[in-house]
Amino acid sequence: MPLIFSRYAPAPVLVGLGAFLSCLCIALGGLSAQPAAGQPAGPVVLTVEGVGDGPMHFDLAMLKALPHRSFTTHTIWTSGEQRFEGVLLRDFLDRIGVERGELVVRAANDYSIAIPISDATDPGPIIAYARNGAPMSLRDKGPLWLVYPYDADPAWRTEVVYSRSIWQLDHMTIAPEGASQ
Predict the structure, then answer these.
(1) Do residues 128 and 69 make contact, with C-beta atoms less than 8 angstroms apart?
(2) Biggest alpha carbon distance in the chain?
(3) Which of 119, 129, 125, 169 is nearest to 147 (CA)?
(4) Which residues contact 159 (CB under 8 A, 6 or more apart)?
(5) Which regions of the chain are under pLDDT 70?
(6) C-alpha span between 52 and 177 (Å, rounded)
(7) Which residue in 15, 71, 157, 181 has its CB near the most CB atoms, within 10 A?
(8) pLDDT of residue 160
(9) Residue 31 contacts by C-beta under 8 Å, 6 or more apart in sequence?
(10) HEC states along the chain?
C-alpha cells in the first residue's frame, strides 16, 4: 500500500508511520559520544566539545577507568626524571570517536593551543593525571597535563611540542583541520 501524506491518508498508515518514527528517534537518541562510564560523579576535570550532541564531561574516576599508560621522562619544567601516568591521547580520542581534525586545548589559566590529531600516536602523549605516583594539584600543573614522552624521541623535544604540552588542561574542542588558523 503506498504511503500518502495527506489528511486523507488511512489511519493505519499514519499510526504505522508514527510508530516507526518513534522507534527511530529512540534508537538515534541512544547514540551518544559520552563514554560508557556514564556521567561524572565527582568534580569535572575535563570538558570536551565538538563531538556528539553536546559537551562531554569527565571526572578523574572516568579517566582512570580508561586504559592507562605510564612513562618516565625529563621535562623542561621539572627537575630530574618524572613518572607520568594517564590516558594515551590516541586511546582517549578513539574512545570518544575522533579520527581527524585538530584539538584546541585550553588550560585553567586560559592558555590554549591547537594540536593536530596526528600527534595522537602510540607511543605518544598522554593526558596525565598522576606524576611520580601522586595526583597533581592545580598549583602543581594538574589535575591534568598533556605530556609527551620527551626522552623517547628527539622529535618530541622541540619548541612546537613543548608549546603543546599543556598543563592545567581542562577543556578540549574537536575542530575541523585548519579551523584554528
Answers:
(1) no
(2) 79
(3) 125
(4) none
(5) 1-37, 178-181
(6) 17
(7) 71
(8) 97
(9) none
(10) CCCCCCCCCCHHHHHHHHHHHHHHHHHHHCCCCCCCCCCCCCCEEEEEECCCCCCEEEEHHHHHHCCCEEEEECCCCCCCCEEEEEEEHHHHHHHHCCCCCEEEEEECCCCEEEEEHHHCCCCCCEEEEEECCEECCHHHCCCCEEECCHHHCHHHCCHHHHHHCCECEEEEEEECCCCCC
Judge if the upstream peptide bond of residue 154 is cis by omega within 30 degrees of 0: no
CA distance 49 to 59: 15
Give the distance from CA 125 to its chain's centroid.
13
Burial of 75 (0-12, 13-18, 19+ CB in 10 A): buried
pLDDT confidence of residue 180? 64
